[in-house]
Design goal:
about 550 residues; single chain; Transcription Regulator spoIIAA; elongated; four-stranded mixed sheet; alpha/beta; two-stranded antiparallel sheet
């Protein structure tokens, strides 16, 4: 707890100003993702507030911003749709049952994420290879960019002024034309220009905040007819930004009976949402660590995020996870302490309670310009320079993760990237095992094994031995190798049996303590072939080195 307060703020002014900037950028994101999920915009805003506040105060990474995210929204839409259909099919139909199912699911999402933190699973983010990380930021930058392109469209209206619906239930849209398009492009470019040029003059105020205020002032005082936060909400079917405090969903527990026969579906959605949230948050945490040169706690982030999702379920929020775009805005604006995320969350709630009329006048173009600068800052442009210099397998992983992130979602992309990298690593190590052969003065043939012995290298390992042609005494020296898994144990067991069946004596020498323990635990008869008497000083060096690696 002491470390939490120590990291609350390092520079109050920067944290407060960057927090306000992030809050402005959170509004259209939370609203847009609520529309994606098919729920009221206020549910998205409440979710962003509760998620942002809890993770800012108790999360594992000062300066990282959490809120409602698109990666989770695209899963939520299927959950809500399924719940609504079940509600309509009941004997006494229940409208909007899907929203209640979402709140119930968030309770399980939170429990899963807290469990991940308690069991210290957050450390596994360190196993994510660098090409996967680069693919992650590139893919996410493309996703953020594509999401902003939707702001350059408007709904198609019929003669009565109503939106025209497509057969799939979505509304028809068309690209902006005429003055509306030029205003949009002009203000986006102006915003980006201010964000690019202002830091060259002064860094005392966040460039993103100044850009938003300048563009908003121009549109408000000139009376220009441009798309604003308010028009964006109303065009999407919402009634506005103004609302009240989140309220406890006491009716929630009465809907548990509606889950009879659907528990497996709810739990499967919960695991998917929990996995997406944890992966995106831990990857973002890792990225912010690199940007700031500090280190956060993945396990603490898991617990904080889980607690926030439970709170969202109980108080009617959408839930969510870390947001890479807003986190980068915050860090680049000087927000390095927990105060910045706290200010962003509280300011977002204040917008809903008191500032709706003013915030609704902010032009969408200013926020799109900010996000475009985030895209430019997020994308790993160095990947183009190094793509021909890194191993082909790593280049393939980088491109694959980027493509899958855009095509499917972040969780699938990262998991696929890790699996591909693991398979490549296993294959490389499988082909690295070697056996140097020599004959001692007493006629014993020695096989000096070099390289790890595991499931992938078993076939190559077995091919090194000539049981029929070897002398009566054989020694397998593991001074530069290690028995790694059950497949390796079985391979040694079968090899020893072959030599014994052939009437020959076999010894295993220079086994590391953990390898010996692994063999004896699997089969005590290995005691007969393991040679404990060692006189090679290299053995102690290798053993000490292995002990250090394990510890």
């Amino acid at each position: 707890m002491k470390s939490i307060f120590n990291s609350f703020t390092f520079n109050p002014k920067d944290d407060i100003l960057s927090g306000l900037t992030v809050a402005l950028a959170l509004v259209p994101e939370a609203v847009a993702f609520a529309f994606v999920a098919g729920i009221d915009p206020l549910v998205g805003l409440y979710g962003a507030f509760m998620m942002g506040l809890v993770t800012a105060l108790f999360g594992g990474r000062p300066g990282m911003i959490s809120g409602a995210t698109g990666a989770m929204a695209v899963v939520m839409v299927h959950l809500i749709s399924e719940g609504n259909q079940v509600g309509l099919d009941m004997e006494v139909p229940i409208k909007n049952l899907g929203l209640q199912w979402l709140f119930i699911t968030l309770l399980f999402v939170g429990l899963i994420q807290i469990s991940a933190g308690v069991f210290k699973l957050g450390k596994f983010v360190r196993l994510i290879p660098h090409p996967v990380m680069m693919g992650f930021v590139n893919g996410l930058a493309i996703v953020i960019f594509m999401a902003q392109l939707g702001m350059f469209k408007e709904f198609v209206l019929d003669a009565s002024g109503e939106r025209i619906m497509n057969p799939d239930g979505s509304f028809q849209q068309m690209w902006l034309q005429g003055s509306a398009l030029w205003y949009m492009v002009g203000f986006v470019v102006l915003t980006m220009g201010i964000m690019w040029g202002l830091p060259k003059l002064t860094k005392k105020v966040p460039a993103a905040l100044v850009a938003i205020l300048v563009v908003a002032s121009i549109t408000i005082f000139s009376g220009m007819d441009v798309s604003t936060v308010g028009s964006f909400i109303r065009d999407g079917g919402g009634s506005g930004l103004e609302g009240s405090l989140p309220t406890f969903q006491d009716q929630l527990f009465g809907f548990f009976s509606s889950l009879d026969g659907h528990w497996w579906s709810i739990l499967s959605y919960a695991f998917i949402l929990a996995a997406i949230g944890l992966i995106e948050s831990l990857m973002t945490l890792n990225l912010i660590d690199e940007m700031t040169g500090t280190r956060g706690s993945g396990n603490r982030e898991c617990v904080a995020q889980g607690s926030a999702n439970i709170l969202n379920g109980l108080f009617g929020g959408m839930g969510g996870c870390a947001m890479i775009g807003q986190s980068i805005i915050n860090v680049n604006s000087g927000g390095r302490g927990r105060l910045s995320g706290t200010v962003a969350a509280v300011a977002l709630l204040c917008f809903v309670l008191f500032g709706a009329p003013l915030i609704e006048q902010i032009p969408i173009a200013a926020l799109v310009g900010v996000m475009f600068m985030v895209v430019i800052g997020t994308f790993a442009w160095s990947s183009f320079r190094i793509i021909n210099k890194i191993p082909k397998a790593d280049a393939f992983v980088l491109i694959a993760v980027s493509a899958i992130t855009v095509w499917q979602d972040l969780a699938i992309a990262v998991i696929a990237g890790v699996i591909i990298s693991a398979l490549v690593f296993a294959w490389r190590n499988a082909t690295m095992i070697r056996a140097r052969k020599r004959i001692k003065e007493d006629g014993t043939k020695v096989y000096e094994i070099w390289g790890p012995l595991f499931f992938g290298s078993i076939q190559t390992f077995n091919s090194k031995f000539d049981v029929a042609g070897d002398p009566d005494k054989v020694e397998i020296d593991f001074i530069e190798s290690k028995v790694s898994d059950h497949s390796a144990i079985e391979a040694l067991h079968n090899l020893a049996n072959k030599y014994i069946d052939a009437g020959k004596q076999i010894k295993l020498t220079h086994l590391s303590p953990e390898s010996k323990t692994l063999l004896l635990k699997a089969n005590p008869r290995f005691e007969e072939v393991i040679e404990d008497s060692v006189d090679d000083p290299r053995y102690y060096v290798v053993t000490d080195k292995l002990d250090l690696e394990i510890n």
